[in-house]
Specification:
The chain has about 240 residues and is of the alpha/beta class. It has one domain: Vaccinia Virus protein VP39 (Rossmann fold, 3-Layer(aba) Sandwich). The chain is built from nine helices and seven strands, in the order αααβαβαβαβαβαββα. Helix 1 crosses helix 2. The model has no long low-confidence stretch (mean pLDDT about 95). The structure holds S-adenosyl-L-homocysteine (SAH). S-adenosyl-L-homocysteine (SAH) binds next to strand 2 and helix 6.
Length: about 240
């Protein structure tokens, strides 16, 4: 099957309708990713079908939470090669997107991609989440935070929750390890001012991989001491 059909039909089985324009932009981004990936290592996934399902469709699962709406300020923490942030921005071009990653080469790729794809209101920042969370220009400034495959739930909660406005949402994308991580994650989520409001079970189209989206609402402001200095959340996770 053609790539455009896999993307279109895969999204449809998730209840998401993609226009030809959105599909073309996603496939254009896929080509950029593959061509850069030959020079610098951006992703381990290189097969077209796997990129479409495990990067693009998996990113779009975030839509199923219902909290990503028109013109919101969205931050993707530890975005890597742009997932889930770039597919979400292509899906809803009104989003005000900030992509953050600690890796310079990934951010360079994303700066180029934003320009080539003509994405407006999108920036890529080379920074650590711990620093952004203590920067007054970023702390408590976002409506929604997303983070995929960055760290355990406890650690990513310390990265993401300080960045959210009160009543904002953190969508934590997880696979099979969710239950295990939730044990220590619950404490950290509470300490950072969050509350779990939903856990959504999904399976990816075509390949069938199991996914879970943990939807966390920020119900209180985060205590000023969080996030702690770079590296500390990872070294001494709140639990
Ligand atoms: N979200 C992407 C990338 C996952 S790999 C995807 O799902 O495909 C994890 C990424 O998180 C790496 O690119 C790494 O540089 C970044 N990262 C890890 N800890 C970070 C931190 N504290 N601040 C910013 N980026 C971080």
């Amino acid at each position: 099957m053609e790539n455009s059909r896999i993307l279109h039909e895969g999204a449809l089985t998730m209840g998401i309708v993609l226009s030809d324009k959105q599909i073309n932009k996603m496939l254009e981004f896929m080509e950029m990713l593959k061509s850069y990936n030959r020079k610098v290592n951006l992703t381990a996934i290189t097969d077209d079908l796997e990129i479409i399902v495990k990067h693009f469709l998996d990113s779009l699962t975030c839509i199923k939470t219902g909290v990503i709406q028109n013109s919101l300020k969205l931050i993707d923490v530890g975005t890597g090669a742009g997932f889930p942030g770039i597919p979400l921005k292509i899906y809803d071009k009104s989003l005000k997107l900030v992509l953050v990653d600690a890796s310079r080469k990934k951010i360079s790729f994303l700066e180029k991609a934003i320009e080539t794809l003509g994405l407006k209101d999108a920036v890529a920042l080379h920074e650590r989440a711990e620093n952004l969370g203590q920067d007054k220009n970023f702390r408590e400034k976002f409506d929604v935070a997303v983070s995929r495959a960055v760290s355990t739930m406890s650690i990513v909660s310390e990265y993401c929750l300080p960045l959210l406005k009160k009543d904002g949402y953190f969508i934590c994308q997880k696979g099979k390890t969710m239950e295990e991580e939730l044990k220590e994650g619950r404490k950290a989520i509470e300490v950072m001012g969050g509350e779990i409001v939903d856990i959504i079970d999904l399976s990816l189209p075509v390949l069938g991989d199991q996914r879970k989206l943990v939807l966390i609402k920020k119900v209180k402001t985060t205590p000023p001491k969080y996030p702690r200095r770079p590296g500390i959340p990872q070294k001494r996770p709140v639990k």
